[in-house]
Design brief:
The chain is an alpha/beta fold. Helix content is 30%, strand content 27%. It has a domain of 104 residues: GMP Synthetase, Chain A, domain 3, CATH 3.30.300.30. It contains 14 helices and 28 strands. Helix 1 packs across helix 2, helix 1 packs parallel to helix 7 and helix 6 packs across helix 7.
Length: 534
């Protein structure tokens, strides 16, 4: 078992499992907002180009009013699910905290999904009401009709239109402060391997994640973060807005993800740090204004979810010398990036996602669940106070994902003698060729070092004789040409012959899901469809 070895933590028991936790300043989202309102009432919390600046005290009043309206005006009961189809901005942030305050459960609908996908989420979550932005109202009504939901409202003033005084003493408010283990939100996975799983978010898991970010990133009241992820997802409110509240900082919702617009927003609002997917960070690096000294206050970029494209780190070092980088490994089920590779480690630990955070324990196990000897490879398991208690309405998925308090990440990894973690593949993406294991990440990293390769994705496709064969799709670097035979020779020279891609397709773009990760299910399905049509 690998631990961080950092002291100053409290021993605790979480769902019957011994863990270490931060003595966090706030136990719940409600406590966190209450603390921020008392400490920094007039300080900016949400800086929104659409709605203007909202202070801590104003946000608390908006949350209190929305919570009372949801409970009294819409007659919702504790535990009811509130679905929203809203863009990034003040409304959706208020919705999350209002649900937490009123003992309701927030369910965000990713605005890029089609109505039939929304219908599934509404039906699965058992949503009691759907609040929609005007631009999504037609799709919301279509999805609700398919799901058998009658209560669909244009957001109008249902959230920010009912300001009410925040109680000076939460014990005297209309509802008690929620317990730490109460589910305040359900976040659906991207669903690239089938139907998305509904991950339960608890106050305690979120606040443990937020506390880590404040400590690890050195966040203070001078920090301001641009929220590039949708607030319905993990990063927007768990690892950005909650840490901002803990440290007295502020958040700027990003409504338009066009790289130039993001850079202009960072400059306009003096953004100091980003939590961002590598693909978007690579696009920002191509914008002329994303450079010193145009963005002197942008001191930090945290990224994860997929490997950084080759050469991007070097470009960032040259253009943004003041900006430190942090590579991370995390999942929605863990609420936090449970491994971090800090700026000073990146050059000498290329390919690693870092070491476990202070509250995380790690293990590697084989297919039988036995611990893997030192130096070996196996599935990465993690344990800590940040873990979800399970999946909504899916006990079978929880049984598959957890073993005695350890969460199965699905990542195949190795851990070196200093505790650095190297993810070799997703277990479901590992390719079995004639009984031999091919780690797609290993092949991707090898091909990605070639000058002519801009992006690459490697995956397995069915084969009648060998079980699977290796396939690769490649986006050429600007102005370059890709020779598939040269790529195959390069792999053969550096890896085993069974790792050589049989199929190499040169494409203009690699499909990604809504969180920015390469959509390998789409790649496999597309390859199969093409093969059937030949």
């Amino acid at each position: 078992m690998i631990t961080s070895g950092v002291g100053g933590l409290l021993d605790d028991v979480w769902h019957g499992v011994a863990v270490r936790r931060y003595p966090t300043a706030a136990a719940t989202l409600v406590d966190n907002l209450d603390r921020g309102r008392r400490l920094w009432p007039d300080r900016s919390l949400v800086v929104d180009d659409g709605s203007g600046t909202t202070t801590y005290a104003e946000f608390a009043e908006l949350v209190e009013g929305a919570a009372r309206h949801l409970r009294d005006g819409l007659r919702l009961e504790p535990g009811d699910r509130v679905a929203v189809a809203l863009p990034n901005g003040l409304d959706i942030a208020v919705a999350i905290w209002a649900c937490a305050r009123a003992h309701l459960v927030f369910v965000g609908l990713p605005t890029r999904l089609a109505p039939d996908s929304w219908a599934y989420l509404l039906q699965h979550s058992r949503a009691a009401v759907l609040l929609s932005a005007p631009e999504h109202l037609a799709a919301s009504r279509e999805a609700a009709a398919a799901a058998g939901l009658d209560a669909v409202h244009e957001v109008a003033d249902h959230l920010v239109g009912h300001r009410s005084p925040w109680p000076d003493d939460l014990t005297e408010g209309p509802w008690p402060v929620p317990p730490e283990d109460e589910t305040y939100a359900v976040i659906y996975t991207s669903g690239t391997t089938g139907r998305p799983k509904a991950i339960r978010m608890t106050h305690r898991g979120t606040m443990q994640a937020a506390e880590h970010y404040v400590r690890a990133l050195g966040l203070t009241e001078t920090d301001r973060t641009a929220v590039t992820f949708s607030f319905h997802y993990l990063s927007g409110h768990v690892t950005q807005m909650n840490p901002a509240m803990l440290s007295g900082g502020s958040v700027v919702p990003v409504r338009e993800l066009h790289p130039r617009a993001v850079v202009e927003l960072c400059e306009r609002h003096d953004v100091t740090w980003l939590d961002i997917v590598p693909s978007l960070l690579a696009l920002l690096a191509k914008v002329a204004a994303f450079a010193w000294p145009q963005l002197p206050r942008l001191r930090l970029a945290v990224y994860g979810g997929s490997p950084m494209l080759p050469g991007v780190v070097e470009v960032l070092r040259e253009r943004m010398p003041q900006m430190r980088l942090v590579d991370t490994l995390g999942m929605t089920e863990t609420a936090v990036a449970f491994c971090c590779l800090y700026d000073h480690e990146i050059e000498r630990r290329r390919g690693s996602v870092g070491r476990p955070i202070p509250t995380a324990d790690l293990r590697l196990v084989d297919d039988d669940g036995a611990d893997v000897p030192a130096g070996g490879t196996g599935e990465l398991l993690v344990r800590g106070p940040f873990l979800t208690p399970g999946y909504d309405a899916d006990d079978e998925a929880k049984a598959r994902a957890f073993t005695d308090g350890w969460f199965h990440t699905g990542d195949v990894a190795r851990i070196d003698d200093e505790g650095y973690v190297y993810v070799l593949d997703r277990k479901k993406d590992m390719i079995i060729r004639g009984g031999n294991k091919v780690f797609s990440v290993e092949v991707e990293q090898l091909l990605g070092r070639l000058d002519e390769v801009g992006e690459v994705a490697v995956f397995g496709v069915p084969d009648r004789t060998g079980g699977e064969v290796v396939a690769a799709v490649v986006v050429p670097s600007p102005g370059a040409e890709v020779d598939p035979q040269a790529l195959r020779r390069h792999v053969r020279e550096h890896l085993a012959d069974y790792a050589v891609p049989r199929h190499v397709d040169v494409v203009e773009e690699i499909p990604r899901n809504r969180t920015g990760k390469v959509d390998k299910l789409a790649l496999r399905n597309g390859f199969s469809a093409a093969a059937r049509s030949d």
